[in-house]
Structure formats: structure tokens, C-alpha cells
Amino acid sequence: MKKIGAMLIMMINLFAFNSIYIWSKEFAINNNAILSFIKSHNINVALISASKNIDCYKLYDFTKMANKNKIKVEFLIGDNSWIYPEKRDKILNKLKFLSQFNNFYIHLDVEPHTIKSLKKYRDKYLNMYLEMLKYIKDNFPKYKISISIPTFYNIKYVEKFSNYVDYIYLMAYEYKKLSQLQKRIDRYKSLKSKIVVAFNCKDFTKEKLINDVNFVKSLGYKNIAFHSFSSLKGLYEIK
Prior knowledge:
The protein has about 240 residues and is an alpha/beta fold.
């Protein structure tokens, strides 16, 4: 039985992935240096901020290099205002621009709960968020979509989101106990196969991060994300 259990764990890890957020300033360093670090930490998904200030030539080269190294690149995009129907042209223009890279993976960083005028109307902004996802999926079916959300979104809405996205990153930040972390992420356990648990590395020591990642994986959440490149790198540079 122990051998069977070990084999099952190996199979789970085989299909698991580790992601990392790489923001514009972090992406400014040499492409080889970025790839070398993330490969050495078994990271196989890079979420690269594709802001308007991005160096397109550098991004194109990085995407090619990453693909050769079997690292998937997702373009990290978004603006909180995108949930408004009148902003659809912004989404349209952004995705048309990204299509030139021939890499159809996007990660949406859209957080309507931070908009002051909407804070009191959670159902309203969650419905608007849902309509935004539906618009993107209907109009750009070629794109694979992942999203980042906080751990307080209502599960009934998140289940609806899951119809239009491939992965859901839970921003599991600022907890004091592992029991609190488990309570937060288990709210979405019905979607476990699509869940990615994201850790904010600046809140950790290297040892605690490893411990908490292993705890989450023991619960059956096989996909992990690290926020962000410079924070994770900093943990391993501390003597």
C-alpha cells in the first residue's frame, strides 16, 4: 500500500505546475538570468507583466527561450476598469496587440473589489466581472485564461467564473495560522483541479514558505504560485 501511495504522489506532482509573477521592473533584467533562476526552482509557468511599457523585443525573445525550455509564458494583463462594459475596446485592443506574439495564454489581474465606488456592491461587481470573462472567452476563444482572485469571493460566482477560465489563482495572503489558510482555500475545493494557491513571498522566510507549500500540497492543491520574482529571489539570497 505504501508503494501505491508513493506512486500516486509522484503522478500528482508530475502533472502539477509552479508559477511565478514577474512584474515589469523585475522583467528588466537579463532574460537568461530570469530563466536560470526559475528553472533552478522548478518553476514552469511565468506570468509576465505585459504592460504598455514592456520591451516587445525582449518579451518576444523571452517567450521563445521559455518555450524551448518547456516553460509556459502567460501574459499578465488587466485594469480594474475592464469590468465596465464601456471598456471592452480596451480589452479588444490589448488582446489584438498580444496576438502578434503567437502565444495565446493570458492571466487577468483585475480586482474590482478595490474600486471605491463598488466596494459596497459585491454582487454587482462580481456579475460585471463574470460578464467581462464571458466577453473575452466568446470573442477570443483561442486564448487560454487564468485569473487572480482574493479568497473572499463568493463560491457561487467563482464556480461561474470557472466556466470561462482554465485556472483560478487564489491570493492566499496574510494569514497567521495554517488552519486559517486551509479554511480560506477549502471554500473553493469543489474547483480543486483548477485552483492555484498563490503565496506572497515577502511574508515568509525560506523555511516557512517551503513548509506552507508542502502543507497546501498535502491537502491536494497541487498547483502553486509565487508572488513575485524579486521576493522569491530575495529569500534565496539571504545568507
